[in-house]
Amino acid sequence: MWLELDETAGQCRLSLGGHAHGYGQTMQEAADDLVARVQRLAKAFRNAGIRPAPGAPTIDPAWLDFLWDLGERAERGEDVREYVLGFQEDQAA
């Protein structure tokens, strides 16, 4: 997954592979929003039992794999921020 940052009229938009977006006044707020949104999405997919399936035409299988793995990490109580954003908190400073 790749991250893309856009800024318009003082508002930051952080996109994860074009699949999910986070918004905020700063990049940090946008990252926090993105992590929260993706984590909620992963939880919803896992609770519904939606799994990656070969030949599933409507949803990118790599995206489903990512969400499923994220949900497992979150259930174990791991901090998923590094997994979503691709870097450790102390590296961002």
What portion of residues belong to β-strands?
A: 15-25%
The outline comes out as globular
Largest sheet: 3 strands, antiparallel
What number of domains? 1
Could you state the order of secondary-structure elements as H and E? EEEHHHH
Tell me the CATH architecture: 2-Layer Sandwich
What is the third-level CATH name, the topology?
A: Double Stranded RNA Binding Domain
Helix content: 40-55%
Radius of gyration: 14 Å
Notes on the protein architecture:
- There is one protein chain.
- This protein is of the alpha+beta class and 93 residues long.
- It has a single domain (3-83), classed as Double Stranded RNA Binding Domain, CATH 3.30.160.620.
- The chain is built from 4 helices and 3 strands, in the order βββαααα.
- It has helices at residues 27-48, 61-75, 81-85, 89-92; strands spanning 3-8, 11-16, 20-24.
- Strands 1-2-3 form a 3-stranded antiparallel sheet.
- A hairpin with a 2-residue loop joins β1 (3-8) and β2 (11-16).
- α1 crosses α2 (61-75).
